[in-house]
């Protein structure tokens, strides 16, 4: 009899201990904002000079040749401003930027790759912002923590890297695969892991939640997790009702009176600064402040120079998938370093975090560190999502060094002046990322079933048209999903909207 009782006792003891760990853990709410397409050196590199010499930033002696074996050299400068056109950041572009003519990541090909795209773009990608031109980041780096070895998960564009942030894999994608974007990526995410343990999450979006690229999140049971940022975020924060994980998605379209704030070139970084300021001040005034961690990061480097060598040794493939021809990428290298700042009253002033202490000798901070750390601080019962989040460095130590929360955190951050010098052009064509967002909206709207709608739907739209289409599609999809739930549909169902591109008022769900 004792033999049968003893294992049960151990299980109960383990459960009590795990619950105790979660109760003692100070962070109950993690807020994640992922912005677009800027490197660490481009946004934060010059803060080494004037804010914190411990930061692995720039000195101005970091240079690239404009062409291989050329004497035409461009060194990194501090005069970054409004960027247009958008630098290259496809998988192929990043190979050239990172390797140059070397066999290992030499970070020597940024200027050369940019020179193949547009005049003067080489100078653009070799420029960084002065701290006073990104005043919100300057203040947060002084007051809280900056990570100067946080890398994008793959050396490639936006969407694969965004997928890693909540699922620790891109399911074999190194670029934007239209068919996969439409059907939705099938992998498990940290959102399911939280739900399995009775924890909550919310996605606060401004144009469209790109988290809907995960197919599972399109199910009826998650429709109530998506909220309009403008209507709900401040309200939930004031009421102390922010969920355990809050994902904030910025505005991806630049519209007069409703400017893009995702930092994607050609958008004004001042609007990204204003968004971070607004989120911070909202959290600072919330009754949940003393239990909150705010994570600010970027999906990838956007083609801008960074001097820190991208890790390429002992990086684990997440799930056995291999990228497409001609590279057949094995997911065994990380991407370029990106800006990452963390904010909490549990973080000491002026903290700089570099390489993690495990779990492996080769471990680094990258986007898979987000689900890896969420699993640890919330003591989730599920297994790791992939081999990558099992390997990634975790950052719970950044808020575990204090016995109590700080009381001296600023309540208000500095004002931000616009840096953009030209008028917003609502009629310009879409970037590749904006086109993918339109394709996602077409799926949600049912328009991908129309034979008259070509694959390049987004290429025929202006930014203004795309903004209206996307907002309408998301609203209809979520409304139909909630209605289906009220009617008693199975919670694992995904609503199939009927085509409504020309007859939007007649949208129905099946």
Written description of the protein model:
The protein is an alpha/beta fold and 510 residues long. The protein folds into three domains: 295 residues, 3-Layer(aba) Sandwich (Alkaline Phosphatase, subunit A), CATH 3.40.720.10; 78 residues, no CATH class; 75 residues, no CATH class. It is built from 16 helices and twelve strands. The strands form three sheets. An eight-stranded mixed beta sheet has the order 7-6-8-1-9-10-4-11, sandwiched between helices. Strands 2-3 form a two-stranded antiparallel sheet. A hairpin with a 7-residue loop joins strand 2 and strand 3. It is globular.
List the SSEs and their pairings.
Elements: H1 2-24, E1 29-35, H2 40-44, H3 47-50, E2 63-65, E3 73-75, H4 91-99, H5 110-115, H6 121-125, H7 135-143, E4 145-147, E5 150-151, H8 158-167, H9 178-183, H10 190-196, E6 201-205, E7 226-228, H11 229-238, E8 245-248, H12 269-284, E9 292-298, E10 340-343, E11 351-353, E12 365-366, H13 369-377, H14 387-391, H15 432-445, H16 463-486
Parallel strand pairs: 1-8, 1-9, 4-11, 5-12, 6-7, 6-8
Antiparallel strand pairs: 2-3, 4-10, 9-10
Helix pairs in contact: 15-16
